[in-house]
Amino acid sequence: MDLETRLLHGYPVLDEVTGASSIPKYQASTFHQGDFRTHQGYTYTRFGNPTIEAAETCMAELEHGSHALAFSSGMGAINAVLFLLSQGDHIVLCRDIYGGTFQTLTEMLVRFGISYTFVEGNNLASWEKALRPETKFFYLETPSNPLLHVIDIEGVVAIAKKHQIQTICDNTFMTPCYQTPLDLGVDVVVQSATKFLNGHSDVVAGFLVMRDDRLYSALKKHQKMLGAILGVEEAWLFLRGVKTLALRMEKAVASAAQLASYLISHEHVTKVYYPGLKDHPGYDVHQKQANSGGAVLSFELSSVEGVYELFDAIRLPIVAVSLGGVESILSYPWSMSHGCMSEKDRLAAGVTPTLVRLSVGIESLTDLNADLSQALNKVRVT
Ligand SMILES: Cc1ncc(COP(=O)(O)O)c(C=O)c1O
What is the mean pLDDT of residues 18-38? Predict the structure, then answer.
């Protein structure tokens, strides 16, 4: 079945008890045990809940996994998988990683004796060079946030497999509509469902998806022990939002591609980062592993003042942290998604004060283009 169909029929979408066309919110923290001596399916919502499980089954289906686990946020999912690291272990990550992941490693996990190395993700040799006997995982995001760098997933996986280590890939930007890293040999996929999957800027949620049963058992235990489970209401909202994922993405990526071309030609824009552009350095690799440039693009203006002028003048996109909503979202990585990194680390990752990120929504392309155009024209060149 195609993804559009699987989104509507490929996982539990009907209530088995009543036939209701939407999985009900099993808004219960606990379940009556008719005979507590025999194990029954559900006992306590932190251990399992039918609404949350429907969302998990959905994600496993979409990412071509065997299992999925739902969390209260993308960061909840990321922390659950990073807790597979033990004292003395080492992890290699691509340099321009989501700021929260960076902060977890550099401020929290280091306190438990875990070490890390950041590498230029698109340079395969740098992954191999960073390896140590105690390296346990490779961790990548492609395209990355916010610079849309592309990393060769199969290339990184091949090095990992050669050295018997596992690979984790954050697939938030592409969504399973356009990239399925488990098919390329990745062991665990991370999703911030807060973004495109839910798609309506009204839920914070995260998932881990995997095929391996042992990994699943270990991560299921982390879900239970760390306690960052997805709420029932959020699981239900996710199930509602995800049904239109393919339709939303189709519209948003078509507009993003057009806007990227427009921005390139604009005199005030000094650089555009969008993996759907033929002159993007990772274009060929991206084409090999994904089938769309996605709905997020970033661009540079020539001055910080220009950035402020643009934000003051823009009317349609909301100005906010986050991406992947039905509405376009303009954000400023320097102080928003990456504000938790030191200035030195931000600059080392290429996140400059003149960088702007646009998550393209499903508004009319004509209106979006006109709005960007009027706002850019208010930028005075310095
Ligand atoms: C690529 C990526 N991964 C993970 C996260 C964290 O997700 P959440 O905000 O749902 O915790 C984000 C948030 O912006 C993100 O952009």
Answer: 94
pTM: 0.97
Residue to substitute in 195, 237, 341 for testing ligand 1 pocket (most ligand atoms within 8 angstroms of CB):
195
Cα 216 to Cα 153, 163, 190, 220: the distances in Å are: 21, 22, 13, 6
Nearest atom of ligand 1 to the alpha carbon of 144: 1
Residue 157 CA to ligand 1 centre (angstroms) = 22
- C-alpha closest to that of 316 among 252, 367, 258, 253: 367
Residue 26 annotated to the active site: no
Q: How far is CA 228 from CA 106, 204, 247, in A?
A: 21, 12, 30
Domains of the chain, CATH where assigned = 3-242 (3.40.640.10), 245-376 (3.90.1150.10)
Structure tokens at 6: 């699987």
Atom of ligand 1 minimally distant from the CA of 78: 4
Q: Does residue 39 carry a pLDDT above 90?
A: no
CA of 368 to the centre of ligand 1 (A): 25
More confident call, 244 vs 99: 244
Q: 3-state DSSP: the chain helix, strand, coil percent, rounded to 5?
A: 40, 15, 45
What pLDDT, on the 0 to 100 scale, is given for residue 382?
60
Residue 340 has pLDDT above 90, yes or no: no
Is the preceding peptide bond at 143 cis, omega within 30 degrees of 0? yes
